[in-house]
Design the sequence.
């Protein structure tokens, strides 16, 4: 059961990273395009650093290509998540992104000929309903379509993340752990750069680098903590069943919700998320639905 502790550690690591990312948005880098661009830079640099200690081995061209593609898929997922996180509460963003096991289950049906029972489909419905519930517009905006546009962006991010995880499980049977991590970093990094590179973003990125505080917390969060979390994810997938690993990692939304409440209290004020009863009830019920649905998908 070593994979269980590794997966739990990954959930905690990514929960902390998510909260720190939101703090960075609020205090240091409010522009999403600049944040995503800098994530791409950090990911590529980290890949190069790993190569200094663990040079890449030789593989067939197809394996190289799929490994790079898995990183690109993770890049699309992160870009959509960060874009929405720049203007939405982190405790609303992470639960929807964490619905990726729904897509993993569907991929298993399509490509592995696995079967889903009626209870599995019910669990999927509960998960999607929870994601939709937490993505509702405010009451003053409900005259038109009830779902916020962020719901669809985050579901796209969830689907691409699921496909990246799905491919990684197979790649770890063909590649060394560190080789996959390097190529994943390169694929993720170049995707973020391709999506966001333009003159105004480059100027904004240079401004960020001139601030020691902004640079320090960003590099620590995206270069160290996120790297540790990602390495733990791949390690857990390598050690255990991908469906169960995904289930354990579904604890992340609950951890993020708890941290967002804690850091929004008057004593801390590191975040500025609303703490009224109606909002907290919506977040708690929605997050619980998503976590319960994900758990049921893997365990039933």
Sequence:
């Amino acid at each position: 059961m070593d994979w269980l502790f590794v997966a739990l550690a990954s959930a905690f690591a990514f929960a902390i990273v998510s909260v720190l990312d939101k703090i960075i948005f609020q205090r240091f880098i409010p522009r999403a395009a600049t944040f995503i661009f800098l994530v791409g830079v950090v990911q590529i640099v980290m890949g190069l650093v790993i190569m200094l200690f663990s040079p890449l081995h030789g593989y067939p061209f197809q394996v190289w290509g799929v490994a790079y593609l898995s990183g690109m898929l993770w890049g699309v997922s992160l870009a959509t998540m960060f874009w929405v996180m720049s203007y939405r509460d982190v405790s609303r963003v992470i639960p929807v992104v964490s619905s990726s096991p729904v897509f993993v289950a569907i991929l298993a049906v399509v490509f592995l000929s696995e079967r889903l029972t009626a209870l599995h489909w019910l669990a999927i419905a509960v998960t999607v309903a929870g994601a939709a519930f937490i993505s509702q517009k405010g009451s003053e905006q409900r005259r038109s379509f009830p779902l916020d546009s962020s719901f669809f962006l985050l579901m796209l991010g969830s689907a691409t993340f699921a496909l990246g995880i799905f491919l990684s499980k197979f790649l770890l049977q063909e590649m060394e752990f560190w080789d996959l991590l390097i190529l994943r970093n390169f694929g993720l990094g170049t995707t973020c750069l391709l999506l966001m590179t333009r003159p105004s973003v480059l100027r904004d990125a240079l401004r960020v680098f001139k601030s020691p505080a902004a640079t320090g917390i960003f590099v620590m969060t995206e270069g160290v903590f996120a790297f540790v979390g990602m390495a733990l994810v791949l390690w857990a997938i390598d050690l255990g069943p991908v469906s169960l690993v995904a289930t354990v990692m579904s604890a992340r939304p609950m951890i993020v919700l708890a941290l967002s409440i804690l850091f929004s209290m008057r004593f801390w004020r590191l975040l500025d998320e609303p703490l009224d009863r109606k909002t907290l009830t919506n977040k708690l019920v929605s997050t619980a639905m998503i976590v319960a649905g994900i758990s049921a998908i893997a365990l039933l």
About this structure: DSSP finds 13 helices and no strands in the chain. The CA atoms of residues 169 and 242 lie 7 Å apart. The first helix runs from residue 2 to 27. Residues 139-145 have pLDDT under 50 and may be disordered.
